[in-house]
Prior knowledge:
Blueprint: H1 4-24, H2 50-68, H3 72-85, H4 90-102, H5 106-119, H6 124-137, H7 140-153, H8 158-170, H9 174-188, H10 192-205, H11 208-221, H12 226-238, H13 242-255, H14 260-272, H15 276-288, H16 294-310, H17 315-331, H18 336-348, H19 352-365, H20 370-383, H21 386-399, H22 404-416, H23 420-431, H24 437-453, H25 457-470, H26 475-488, H27 492-505, H28 510-522, H29 526-538, H30 544-556, H31 560-573, H32 580-583
Helix pairs in contact: 1-4, 2-3, 3-4, 4-5, 4-6, 5-6, 6-7, 7-8, 8-9, 9-10, 10-11, 11-12, 12-13, 12-14, 13-14, 14-15, 15-16, 15-17, 16-17, 16-18, 17-18, 18-19, 19-20, 20-21, 20-22, 21-22, 22-23, 22-24, 23-24, 24-25, 24-26, 26-27, 26-28, 27-28, 28-29, 29-30, 30-31
Amino acid sequence: MLNRIYIFNTIAIGFLSVLILVSACTTTEPVVNANERDHDQDSVRIVATEENLSQGRSYFIRGITAMELGDLEAAEVLLTRAEASLPQSSGVYFALAELYLEMEDYTTGILYGEKAVELDPDNKWFRFLLVDGYQASGNNTEVMNQLEELHERLPSDLEVLYMKAQVQAQMGEYARSNKTYERILNLTGPDRSIHYQRISNFTRLEETDAIIEELKKVLKLDPGNINTLLMLNQFYIEQGQIDDAHEVLKKAQERNPRHPEALVNHADIHINREEWEIAGRLLQDLVGDTLVSSGNKLEIVQYIISRFSNDPGNESLRQTTASLINTLLDTEPGNGLAHAMAAEFYLKSDNGDQSLYHLRKTVELMPENDAAWRQLIQSYYVEGYYEKAIASGKKANQHVPEDAFIQFFMGGSYFLLEKYDEAIMWLKAASELPSRSAFRSIIFGTLGDTFASLDRWKDADDAYEEAITLDFDNDVALNNYAYYLSEREERLDQAKNMAKRALELNPDNSAYLDTMGWIYYKMGDYESAHKYINASIETGDASAEVMEHMGDVYDQLGEPDRALYWWQKSLGEDKTRTHLKERLHIN
Length: 587
């Protein structure tokens, strides 16, 4: 809606015109005067009286007041009465148009807006309100028609040109919008705000050269604006005009030698040129400066870590990043975010011990940092420190309760420690917490493994079924469920289909190949069993169990010597397989 000041000014003008019209013309008829008749005609001529005009003005003013106070129902009644007493009043039509548009009755609002414009076609505020109505109703064609007509009537009116340019941009006509803005500049002279509007349109048009030229114009108006210099620098970099970018940054640093973003951009140019020593020195001075805010230091270090993440094999960049992190920690030893960044860097550098150290410091300084707790517990889990994962999980649960990720890794750690009752408790708790389907599938798959370890097959099957329902691409759950079905010699066709799907997802997995082979073994197809189990062994990752399976296959194929060879190899890999001694005739 339009600004209320403009509305009342317009209403006042419209109202004045009504008074002039009424005083000059007696052909309109708010009421019937029984004493006034045209003796030449049979019809009654309705004549406006001062009393009726006065009543109409009263309705009008009271209606406007009610609308301003938000009583739209009263405003509708009063303005409708005003319309009856003051017919052909552009001001009344305008007020009714605004009222109905505010009531979201766009059809009626547009109707009254058109009446107001018809009576006063040069009144830009009437047309602006009508444009509002057409925009609200989605009639973009009529929006532009009204603005084009108003522009023809008032070709040098800046407010008309501004609205036209804005509407063109809203409709996606960015090139036409910029032409309109150019007309405004021709009338007003250089204007930063208009240049930035043109830059916005050029950005949507992806015309980088035009953006650069427009930014140069802005700099002529405000040569010391660092933000404009930095923006120009960025576009020069995108265009590969590195020397121009460098010159712009020099100007920015002349105005503020310690501006963090300018220094980072300057360093980025040297990084792109692989001038690591210069880049490192620029950033090192900034991170080590006690006058630079913690926030700016963290942004700089995060930026360089992101560069390292994209090029982890770059040793020079790794050393520069490590040096910046050390400097940051020297100046911000109690900053939890600094330790979190250090943990991220060392994790990406495959330095597990340093990563764990800084993760511990992060959660010590920021115990509510759920991401750090998750990463810490996961790192312990991956490194095989299951007791530490559980201990950290219990601490995390005090600060970040009901976190599915944390509770899952606690349950997984208990499972790998063969503490199955505790594993079931935590995994069930994790499964009941909100998480994405793929992750919930992993939780249920691990729960299935835990129940299987206890020979609780009904519970195991239910958990596996839920895991696969949640994510049919969960290859671990598919494989494990298939293998346990084959061990029990149940639903072997279903087991084969699941094993096949697991192999489609991960075709070189030694365990998955063995599962498929073992299913064929249980189905009596020993040639196919040999094919898959042999493929499992050829991966180089075969376990003692796979080797035992190969011995079993050769035994069924009638090759006892080869069977003995693989049983012996299996026992050599895993001394706990004492049942093989009987087959090998070992006491």
